[in-house]
Design a protein that fits this description.
Shape: globular
Strand order of the largest sheet: 4-3-5-6-7-8
Largest sheet: 6 strands, parallel
Structural class: alpha/beta
Domain HTH luxR-type: 169-234
Keywords: DNA-binding, Phosphoprotein, Transcription, Transcription regulation
Helix content: 40-55%
Number of strands: 8
Mean pLDDT: 80
Organism: Saccharopolyspora endophytica
InterPro entries: CheY-like_superfamily, NreC/VraR/RcsB-like_REC, Sig_transdc_resp-reg_C-effctor, Sig_transdc_resp-reg_receiver, Tscrpt_reg_LuxR_C, WalR-like
Number of helices: 10
Strand content: 15-25%
Domain Response regulatory: 24-142
Distance between the termini: 39 Å
Length: 242
């Protein structure tokens, strides 16, 4: 069911579906060209609106608290406050009204990923991610999902294949249909929804339906957990990454 928002107006207030309003995004990066590039990509979408830009972490926190965007895109290395601290302040466990933060960085380091996710981030992208993946990360964050750059996801989750191989106590792959398993495997090797459409010759709506069914059957909350399940149960292996 779509959430609804009451809008003021003459006479009775009217209700509109929040899904009909653009996703409001705040961009924080100390490089003006990066901010401009992200704005150009996101503003090209009719369902996304960039509502502000910040050149450092302190400005990002101030703008986020004032503007209350739906999603904050936050760089790791910024003056004043770095992106990890900004994430903790805006989305961390101690935050009364946590926001949805997607961390974007040039630095592909495991400790950054773990710290960002511990601090409440709902996405982790590398700056060389495609425009489609940037848009998908914003959309995923807005709906409460999580998305991590494919290169990061595959490297981190590949370790589960070895580390958790002796313990296959999770839901077995057989619980999924053949097509759902195909989708789960592609998620596990970092494919976006659009790429899954192309590889399996499915519509975007069908892919989203499969993902919803997979999450329901596995008890997972998002595509990152689907990927973790696939690696840890052996549903996907290194052979599938080619």
């Amino acid at each position: 069911m779509a959430h609804r928002r009451r809008l003021p107006g003459a006479g009775r207030a009217r209700l509109v579906d929040v899904s009909d309003t653009p996703t409001r995004v705040l961009i924080a990066d100390d490089q003006r060209l990066v901010r401009s590039g992200f704005r150009m990509i996101l503003d090209a979408r009719p369902d996304i609106e960039v509502v502000g830009e910040a050149a450092d972490g302190a400005e990002c926190v101030e703008l986020a608290r004032r503007l209350r965007p739906d999603v904050c895109l936050v760089d790791i290395r910024m003056p004043e406050l770095d992106g990890l601290e900004v994430t903790r302040v805006l989305a961390g466990p101690a935050t009364a009204e946590p926001m949805r933060v997607v961390v974007v960085t040039t630095f592909d380091q495991d400790d950054y990923v773990h710290e960002a996710l511990r601090n409440g981030a709902c996405g982790f992208l590398l700056k060389d991610a495609s425009p489609a993946l940037l848009v998908e990360a914003v959309e995923a964050a807005h709906r409460g999902d999580a998305l991590i750059s494919p290169a990061v996801t595959v490297r981190l989750l590949h370790r589960l294949e070895t580390r958790e191989a002796p313990d296959r106590a999770r839901t077995p792959p057989a619980v999924l249909s053949e097509r759902e398993l195909d989708v789960a495997r592609l998620v596990a090797v970092g494919r976006t929804n659009q790429e899954i459409c192309g590889e399996l010759y499915l519509s975007l709506g069908t892919v989203k339906t499969h993902l919803t069914n997979i999450q329901s059957k596995l008890g997972t909350r998002n595509r990152v957990e689907i990927a973790a399940w696939a690696w840890s149960t052996g549903a996907v292996t290194a052979d599938h990454t080619g």
